[in-house]
Amino acid sequence: MAEVSVEKLASDIGTTVDRLVSQFKDAGIEKKVSDQVTEDEKRQLLDHLSKQHGSTGSGEPQKMTLKRKSTSTLSVGKSKSVKVEVRKKRTYVKRTDVEEQRLAEEEARKAEEEARAKREAEEKAAQEAKKAAEEKVRKAEEARKAAEKERQERAEKARLEAEARKEDEPELTAEEKAEQEAARKEEERLRKAQEEEAQKKLEEEAKRAADEARKLAEENERRWKEEEERRKKAEAEEVHMHSNRYAQEAEDEEDMQVERSSRRRKKSKKNAGEHLKQSFKKPAQPVERVVKLGATITVGELASRLAVKSNEVIKAMMKMGEMATINQVLDQDTAVLVIEEMGHKYELVNDNALEDELLAENESGVKTTRAPVVTIMGHVDHGKTSLLDYIRRAKVAAGEAGGITQHIGAYKVDTENGQITFLDTPGHAAFTAMRARGATATDIVVLVVAADDGVMPQTKEAIQHSRAAGVPLIIAVNKMDKEAADPDRVKTELSQLEVISEEWGGEHQFVNVSAKTGMGVDELLEAINLQAEVLDLQAVADGPGRGLVIESRLDKGRGPVASVLIQEGELKAGDILLCGEEYGRVRAMRDENGNDLKVAGPSTPVEVLGLSGVPVAGEDAAVVKDERKAREVAAKRHQKKRELKLARQQKAKLENMFANMESGDVSELNIVLKADVQGSVEAIAESLTKLSTEEVKVNIVGSGVGGITETDASLAAASGAIVLGFNVRADASARRVLEAEEIDLRYYSVIYNLIDEVKAAMSGMLAPEFKQEIIGLAEVRDVFKSPKLGAIAGCMVTEGIVKRSAPIRVLRENVVIYEGELESLRRFKDDVQEVRNGMECGIGVKNYNDVKVGDQIEVFEVVEVKREL
Fold this sequence. Notes:
Distance between the termini: 126 Å
Oligomer: single chain
Number of helices: 20
């Protein structure tokens, strides 16, 4: 027996030595790499492997498994890759003898059926061909008989004609008889030739039909043979692995499982959500819905509440003449119109339910007498702050820029008759809103009028504010120490405004005072206390505090600072204070002199630290117990304010869109405004907005309290705005941006300087006016015809000067009949640029030849005139 080493056997069969050793081990044979392998050991290993692959005995294997492995690399990022190994396994199973016999029987049956079908087809084709040939022979025989019959009839007819002719004609000579006989024979010969030719044609056609039938049978036989070969070839392709027919039963089973699982997945996807579907029938009548409306609502939310698509709401608004988007905020009035237009109903609801619930907790306690809140109002420079200085024994006015008050000051003063809280408001025209806020927060208004100046515009405005707020007036006639003082004049002028003194039978107290000498100040305080007693001012001294934000600002070291006037209850350090959109825990409280306070009662002005942001001046301030609810209310107020602002902006855009298109481009002066306190921001913004005209518009793109930051500079750069700082300065980073972008930065400390400069800037932005000035007039005395220039008007310059470059008008009986320009201007034979008054000239009008004697030629210039607001 031939023996080989394990290593040689592994290389011969194409496997690794380790794998061959492990296979020997599985077969129960211990082998090493250097050992020899006998034929018996080879056969034992082969039997083991055959059993492992499905062989039942020493015969051929019944099952064979093929494995294949492939590795690929997938890129999953810029520098990442993953190796993927794909393994495939396929098992072939040998059919049994029963299956082989059954398949052989099926093949024999198929072959027999095919042979029978082939024979039947061939017989059928032969029969069809035979029938066709017989039909052709029959038709040929019929044609021959018809021709024979016709020939006999023609011969009989000819014989009868000949006999008749023979009887009529005389006896023919021998020569004539010979000619006739010869003609008859020739005719007979021709007839026989035609009959032979017809017979030959019939035989050829029969032969051709038989050939066609034979060819058809051969074609069918060839086609059947090709079909048989194709079938055998297909069967041979199915035979694999040395003619042993292995069926891919395992693979087929696997494919069936995959197909069944994919079918299940498709079915599950197709039927996904079937259990959630419900039958729905369209209602017979339109459903009328009741929509609950707050202050604002978006288009998308309104569509959701109406249970319609957003497109339907947008379509309804377009029919009403308003373009809208799905996220557009609608105000309450617009939403009501849309709901009614779509055939539904609405119900107005209160958006402030949480806010009311939060603030309702504070309404309890026993009321006691409180100190009056007095607002000092009047025209600018009439001595309001100076009068308050004397009362407080402090120089408040000295710290104000330009000697005018630009903030609301709140001060508490102890007098002989008790405490009085004073609010000092600015008197400049720009501070209308600030004065109005002071009037609503106060109990008594002291109207300061200069005895030497009388009633001024802001004096009238202060009276209007106090009347609107329903607050009693006390008139303080100031500057009585001056020689020009005339208190009676003040009384007379005020009486025209229906402010009549008690001396004249009215209800207003007039007190003559002097802030400089202190004259009449005690009488003024007595008048205030008397008025306070009449009003019987009371407030809840205990419990959570409530009040009004008088002023607010952003302090660089301390953060947001709010001046709050407590109207009811107590405000303590550590309380949670809700001020409009801002809230926070009170970290510290200070009075007007900077002293720390622990508790602030009614009618006490305090500075509060610890809020989340700078509150808007004029907002209500209230102490709440729950910080979470305070945060919710503040956030809701902020959202509502934003939606209302968006709704107003959108409304303004829609209403003015077509007007702006008709009027052309509107020049805009964009401004970023920063001031030291909120009140100044409001006042300046309102004053600048009032400067807007139809052609030049002031657009405040950003405003706020505090210094000018880099954000403000970036906003100005993006919007092409100028930056105005009122009592504030820009930091280093902001200055760098402003210098790099070359943005105009201006600082102001007096408000009317700011307003005047902005007004001047707007005047420069106004489109200039173009005015036409007549510079000369020439009268046509004669008209000449020129072959080159057409009609030339001989003129006398009667007024001014005629210039060659200026536009002209031709007037006939003082009516303009043509407007254009000069083509030529000559004096004698020379071309000239201008001709002065009293001189003659020749004028050629461009593109106009209908100049007549007596016409006037008017020369004018268009002059640019700068406009001012």
